[in-house]
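Supplementary Text 2. Reproducibility record for the structural model of the 325-residue chain.

All settings were left at their defaults, and a single model was retained for analysis rather than an ensemble. We include the record here because the model underlies the residue-level annotations in Supplementary Table 4.
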Amino acid sequence: MNRLSAALVGLALAGASIFATAASAQNWPNRTVRIINPYPGGGAADTLARLLADHFTTVFGQPFIVEARGGAGGQLGVQFVANTEPDGYNFVITNASLLALAPTVNPKLPYNPTRDLTNIAYVAGTPTVFAVNAKSGVKTLDEFLAFARKSAKPLAYSSSGLGTTGHLVAEAFAKKLKLKVEHVPYKGAQQGLTDLAGGHIDFASQTLSSTAGLIQGGSLTAVVTANPKRLEDYPNLPTLAELGHPDLSGTTWFALSAPAKLPNDIVQKINREVAVAMAKPEVQQMMRNQGLVTETMSVEEFNKFIATEAARWKPVIEEAGLVQQ
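Retained model, structure tokens:
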């Protein structure tokens, strides 16, 4: 076969591949679709995955199932999906850490969030809250600061793990206000909150969705939230922004992603239906009950948001010495 013939064959094969992809996308979905939850069951990621799966099943007429593939702080589930075909049959719940923070924390991350994934939609976010043991008597941020400055030793605090939003907000806050703190990372929120309620640590910098039950039950007192504005269900809880620290706003947000090069018509369909699902009145109420806040973004807006978040937190990660060697 001469070079011209080979080139023509190559073009024909490429055209056939493009045609097959377009036809496949046009008929999508025609079988079961997986949404991977890269975390243990029962958390916010699992709740959101199942909510979306139920909505998509109804709208698209094919089963959407949730499959747990945890490990390495969610990275194993993301890597699994990144390595699948971009045919619309594998999605994964991602979040702020997996898309915006982890690439700076771990330069050897086994996936690249922009190169290896199609990041489709912002789903919901839960703000960071500073909480103390209710028995401490601390009820306001000023009282918390006074307590911290009087302490002879650094205040021990919990987060859900190294490099999480809660960790970064607390470190940035401590640096800005010249507070001495000691981070005690946990493999999730609950054990750290249990230790706080038991008096073993001084405060928690965790998500509202994790902390809400203990706050409402009276075991913990929330002193401030890192949400940009006051929360409707917590009208008396001030924000760091209104207290003069807008740069410290921090939300653990969740998203829906898929392998890179997912056909655009599937991307746009999913983005639209995420917005529809999250706008349902019963879903809005459920989100509020769990300390989650929804926000609608187009695909383009969401990808710009990821880039902005990554750039904003990169210097905080570096200055806290969290970059892995």
